[in-house]
Structure prediction request, 953 residues.
Amino acid sequence: RCTVFMRSSVITEQRNGKAPDDILAGLCVSVVENVFTKVLRLSNLERLGRRVVVQGGTFRNDAVLRAFERWTGRAVTRASQPELMGAIGAALATRERHLDGAWNASRFVGFEALERFGYEERSGVSCPFCGNHCERTVLTFANGTTHVQGNRCERGDIVGDPHDVQVRDRVRAVNAARRALPDVVAERARLLQRRFVEPPQGMASRGVLGIPLALDAYRRLPFWRALLEHLGWEVRVSAPSERSKYQRGLATIPSDTVCFPAKLAHGHVLALAEQGVDRIVVPILITDPSERPGLDLDRPCAVLHGYGAVLRTNCQHDVAVPIETPTFVWNTPAMRERQLADWLSREHGVPRAAVRGAIGAGLEAQRRFDEALQRRGAEVLATLDGDERFAVALAARPYQYDPLVNHDVAAELIGHGVPVLPVDALPGVDDVQLDLQVPLNNLAQARLYGAATLAAGDPRLELVQVISFGCGHDAVVSDELVRILERGGKQLLQLKLDESAVRGPMRLRLTSFLETVRTRRRAPRAVAPAVAAPAPRYLPRDRQARTVYIPNLSPAFSELVAAILRSQGMRIEVVPLADAAAIELGKRHVHNDICFPAQVNIGEFLRHVRDERLDPATVAFGLHQNCKGCRAGQYAALARKALDQAGYEGVPIVTSSLDEDAQAAHPGFRPGALGQAQLVWALAVLDALEDLRRSTRPYERTPGATERVFEDAFAALLRAAPRTVGAPLGVLRDAVRAFNAVEVVDGPAKPVVQVLGEVMVAVHTTANYGVEAYLERNGMEVLGTRLSDFFNEAFLRSLAERSDYGATPGLLERWVRELGHAAFNRAHRAVERTLRSYVRYRPRPTTAEIYASVAHLLAVVHECGEGWLLPGEILHSAHEGIHSFVIVQPFGCIPNHVDGRGMIRAMKEQYPHLQILPLDVDPDTSVGNLENRLQMLVMNARALEARKTALRA
Prediction:
């Protein structure tokens, strides 16, 4: 993934006894592998053809060339001087430009001047010509000319005294040139701060509220400002972003892999607290009604909708004013009105009747902002001819229009003579018909896809996408934008940006992109629009014609699901647990910025079909799909693309989703209500069996005795689960007696470590690199996570939406939620009663009791991934005396930025002695680095246990 991870892998291989030659060969293979899986992302090598020509300095290395040949299986031709091919190409292009009259004379200074070449370098030269005050590096050459690095606009290229007349004239000339071209991104920032609805006159002041100009404020600030001002508050917004503001908030950022816009919000909160505000308001909006066709609800990503809680728990101790984070679920306009009235009347004493008028003012302000932006976009487009004069639509989420976040890319484009438009300024972007191959979850995604659709058919538009490092959603979005643009013969420029101040690579890519665009426009080619074949559907007749292969959540859980589905007449098999070959296939066919579970599960299926030589006409692929706010909601789309690339276009995909679109895709896969009830009870018993195994195995006298008891009990569970709902309880009673009979070694209890995290990684032994086994080998007892709580959490959340937030589900939906939650609770109580006769019985809480432990940190409706379940389990276990926790998560797990790392500070303030170790895993995780970090936790756990034993004595 980067040099740091590479070094960890090298150290691991050295510890494993690998020779230097072997390690260097591995590095050469990695170079080639990264080209195909991370840069070109070419999984179907047939697109290369049979013969390949390579060039560039890297291919001077014979080992890299050989690795390329082995990876591709192709005949590879290398130029005799591969490191000079770029220079030769530049020379040929220069000659062509000279011959066609584009360039008349060379600006080469001559060889003698090169011999005398020298320069003086000055760093940290602050630019005085705008409020950004860029820290520049100025190179002054022997002839007196200068070259400037580190500036964010053309004004920074000017070096001199700002009071000098000639310098001022140059600055004025640059400013005039900038104003000559429309920069609607900058105009959007000014519109965002405009007061579109004036507050009533003569109202008594309620004080001063602060809103940080970060994240969702870049979209909804007009609404919140008008709403709050209409009720008597003065609203102050934090000043635009500066690097110093980001640096100021660094100490409060809990996750170093969260996206830059989220990191930047910390500095805004700290700065806002010093602007004379009485309190800071950061609303948490889970859902919002959508008027966009094809999108019922606007569901922001997990970071966007949950980060208010992170800011409150991590910044509150650093500011002297309260940070208020009201949580809203606006499925309908009526829910919006009720929840705003509840919050404002309960917390601030505002009459409920006054809130209705204030909401109207907020909605009107938002409407006027949107209309003014699109009106300006239409004006700019009307000035373009679509030939030489075109504009760039900057495909970004609202908060990425912050110039610090996007490295002021709009100014760079303006400097190249190209007008810039944000996607929400494009007329018709919310109405254009979308033809998508991926799920649509929120308005930001819809506008990105709408902008691509408009650009594909409009000669006046090109598209440049801003991507923030750590944004896993863009792994899906970017591919879809590329596909849409290809229909119009256009290319997407993707700019992946973070908090680095280095702008050279971005400038180089922009220059190359614009040159490519202009070349294409001078000699346009006819493009035959690609017509995608409809995805195959799993029909009722396929229940007997196809076997559905399902991957592993945990092996036991997947086998249990398969047993119940077989009893309903479906042909179901579980694929073998992933190994290195499966993960390699996942890397090859799944975008490397998507999370690890998708790569593991899709790789498991691809490996099994390949190794067993299965007929694609007789198989289907089953996937769990549950979360729309994180990347898990995109797994089916990712699997479809991976299967198509691997040559399995005819294999249908079925999912556990109950959405209408998903059901239409697989009408033959509809588990009945009886099967779901059976699964609830069987899952509660499976969780209990896992607890019995984990609490017995560390103490067994005969190695393997516990595992044999578990396997016998699990086999009995597989037979019992499809029979009757209550049959699994009999299996558990027998299992308790069998586990009690396992002979154990006398001695003190071992330190307990709870392993939890992203649900699949936490229970999939390959995906978590055997973390449980390692802890047990090092003298720990492991407490695992329970899958029944993961599924019951959704029922508890939906019931709260109805009781506390005004949701009005249909009668059938309401019954399903109530009956589902009641079934989980009944199963839990029955299982706990049975477990009390176990000699090492440790009570486990209900899902509601877990939430009660974390209610002061997160609202019950907080969703995405594990939601509040993860910190809730930690806090409940801490109350019960457990003090060591491992959070296992995929690298860049979006919900975990909020629910895991984001809550650690608050949890440790409540229980200072806790040790909480977050572990990131991906296909290239260094096992040595993982074990080193676990070893530190083991040593501390022993010390904590010894201290606790001494206190008891």
